[in-house]
Write a structure and sequence with these properties.
There is one protein chain. This protein folds into seven domains: about 30 residues, no CATH class; about 80 residues, Immunoglobulin-like (Sandwich); about 90 residues, Immunoglobulin-like (Sandwich), CATH 2.60.40; about 120 residues, Immunoglobulins (Immunoglobulin-like), CATH 2.60.40; about 60 residues, Immunoglobulin-like (Sandwich); about 80 residues, Immunoglobulin-like; about 90 residues, Sandwich (Immunoglobulin-like), CATH 2.60.40. About 5% of the residues lie in helices and about 45% in strands. It has three helices and 53 strands. The strands form 15 sheets. Strands 22, 24, 25, 28, 29 and 30 form a six-stranded mixed sheet that branches. Strands 7, 8, 10, 11 and 12 form a five-stranded antiparallel sheet that branches. This is Ig-like domain-containing protein. Keywords: Membrane, Transmembrane, Transmembrane helix. Pfam families: Ig_2, Ig_3.
Length: about 625
């Protein structure tokens, strides 16, 4: 055996207990570590969020364990008297919008080829406000004056609700507790009573009407009693209105041939709501068997349903028709979100209606169309870019319009074609926002802060000037945020201003000198330049600079520079006269000017002499 084989033998071993394999090839030692197979440990269960769970929250239960091979998980809900119900075969059990019915005890199992273990139970306790209370009265038969009357209220809620009793049109409660007893019932106790169930999550109420038989029997004539007499309802909700009618003793129940509700009249006759196309498939009404208690139910109410509703019943007898008037006033309102700034970083959103909703509603808040919270108000960050809306709990599809901060504004210019000096030009800033955004226009400056120009969506130049060229931007702002547009560049086109002409050298020009004329002007687009000598049709040169390399007396005269672009042209003139020739003398510019002045003065004297003669 050679040294290499000996080395391999000494360093090759398998330890089954530690699952450590050591292999040596040549001078290379390789160690492979593997975990031993093992069945699952007892799974642990966690819940997120770990705080109090409210109806509508997103809740996740997670099952985890240590196992090799990896475990498969199964979630169950423990039934009261039945076998556990399988819910999921994933490690996480997710409730995107947890409901009161999801309360209960849950457990999970973890299983692989080597075993199966079950977790401890975890209890889910979903908090929710009271459902609409159920109100019962005892005795349930005819109530006589002097009787003891007991009202009982119950509502499903978690935590358990507390109860308060009110009589209609009274601010102070009549009683507290689930049971309210009137020991000596009289006509003065007649009216509508409502029970309000409340816990920390919200409140709800239900109404019952109490009328002693003696009061009904004492009404020798026609009568309709309504409850309630006024209803404020949210658009899309369902409205219930009740009535109780009486008639003279000579009228028997069998004489009643028709009972209906109406809001309109045609040719002096009430129009049955069931025949009104505006209420098609949305109206249900009737009367309880062998009873003068009647009801009207309107589903999916609209703002156009706002009206006075009256109940009418008719008999076979002569003059046996009666309408209860005044009726019930219904006001239908849409929900709106009001925004109030709490401080520099927080806002408060409140679900609002134009009238006080009659059923003391519970609101649900949505963020980007997902439920996030219940309650009438919602705090949000002033930096939020999300969309918020509120709904009545249990009402589908009729929430408030969403409120949200402005999107990045877009800027448009009209007319969109080339802008010429003197044109009328309008810049428009627009964005999508609710509440509607307020706009501000600015002009940017290179070395200073932007200059505020307008607080309107439109920035109007009735006669735009070259000085208006530059970069502009606008901002859009409401209570939920502020956004800035991209820059828009305004480039006003205009013809050349009167050119400025300079000569070099600017001192005396001598014959033989090189003379350079320079022309410059302000124009947009930039001007092109052409040089002419007076009385000559052909140009002497083109370009901003014109050079005469060997200036002589023949070059004397008036030169003019013409600046031109597509918007127009303009020119300026310069007279060139050499001061002297090399070794001689000629007229200078000053001499020429003096001679001109002398000639004018001489002409004035001659004219004066002729005038005196």
């Amino acid at each position: 055996m050679n040294n290499r084989d000996s080395l391999r033998e000494r360093h090759t071993s398998i330890h089954s207990n530690d699952q450590l394999s050591t292999l040596t090839s040549s001078n290379l030692l390789v160690c492979l570590f593997t975990s031993p197979p093992d069945g699952p440990q007892r799974p642990s269960v966690s819940v997120s969020p770990s705080a109090e769970m409210l109806e509508g929250d997103s809740v996740t239960l997670t099952c985890s364990t240590d196992a090799n091979p990896a475990a498969n998980y199964t979630w169950y809900k423990q039934g009261g008297t039945s076998d556990p119900r399988l819910l999921s075969e994933e490690p996480q059990l997710v409730f995107s919008s947890i409901q009161s019915s999801d309360s209960g005890r849950y457990f999970c199992t973890a299983e692989n080829q080597l075993g199966r273990k079950t977790s401890d139970f975890i209890s889910i306790d979903v908090k929710y406000g009271p459902q609409r209370p159920s109100v019962s009265v005892s005795p349930s038969a005819e109530m006589l004056e002097g009787d003891s009357v007991t009202l009982t209220c119950s509502a499903d809620a978690n935590p358990a609700a507390s109860y308060t009793w009110y009589k209609e049109h009274e601010d102070s409660p009549r009683a507290s507790g689930q049971i309210f007893t009137i020991t000596n019932f009289t006509a003065e106790h007649s009216g509508n009573y409502y029970c309000e169930a409340q816990n920390e999550m919200g409140r709800s109420n239900s109404t019952i009407r109490l009328i002693p038989s003696s009061v009904i029997q004492s009404q020798d004539g026609w009568r309709v009693i309504y409850y309630p007499t006024y209803v404020c309802a949210a658009k899309g909700s369902t409205v219930d209105i009740s009535s109780f009618y009486t008639h003279p003793p000579r009228i028997r129940s069998s004489d009643i041939k028709d009972r209906f509700w109406f809001t309109k009249e045609k040719d002096g006759e009430p129009v049955d709501l069931r025949t009104d196309s505006e209420y098609s498939d949305r109206v249900t009404y009737g009367c309880y068997s062998n009873s003068k208690d009647c009801y009207l139910t309107i589903t999916d109410v609209r703002e156009s349903d706002s009206a006075e509703y009256k109940f009418r019943f008719m008999t076979e007898k002569m003059g046996g028709k009666y309408t209860g008037s005044p009726g019930v006033t219904l006001s239908v309102t849409g929900l709106q979100v009001q925004v109030r700034r709490l401080n520099s970083t927080w806002l408060e959103l409140t679900c609002h209606s134009s009238c006080v909703l009659s059923d003391r509603p519970k609101y649900v808040w949505y963020k980007n169309e997902e439920i996030i919270k219940t309650g009438s108000s919602l705090p949000v960050s002033s930096a939020s870019t999300d969309r918020y809306s509120c709904y009545l709990r249990g009402s589908c599809g009729h929430g408030s319009p969403a409120v949200y901060g402005p999107q990045r504004p877009s800027v448009s210019v009209s007319p969109s074609a080339e802008m010429l000096e003197g044109d009328s030009v309008t810049l428009t800033c627009s964005t999508d926002a609710n509440p509607a955004a307020n706009y501000t226009w600015y002009k940017a400056h290179r070395t200073s802060d932007p200059h505020l120009l307008s607080k309107e969506p439109h920035l109007v130049f009735s006669s735009i000037q070259s000085s208006d060229s530059g970069r502009y931007f606008c901002t859009a702002e409401n209570q939920l945020g502020r956004k800035t547009s991209d820059f828009i560049s305004i480039d006003v086109k205009y013809g050349p201003q009167r050119p400025s002409v300079s000569v070099s050298p600017s001192a005396e020009m001598l014959e033989g000198d090189s003379v350079t004329l320079t022309c410059s002007t302000d124009a947009n687009p930039a001007a092109s330049y052409t040089w002419y000598k007076e009385h000559e049709d052909s140009p002497r040169a083109s370009g901003q600079i014109f050079t005469i390399t060997d200036f002589t007396a023949e070059h004397s005269g008036n030169y003019y520079c013409e600046a031109q672009n597509e918007m127009g042209r303009s020119n300026s003139t310069l007279r060139l006269i050499p001061s002297s020739e090399k070794g001689g003398s000629t007229w200078s510019t000053t001499t020429t000017v003096f001679a001109s002045i002398s000639a004018v003065f001489l002409l004035i004297i001659i004219l004066a002499v002729l005038y005196i003669r």
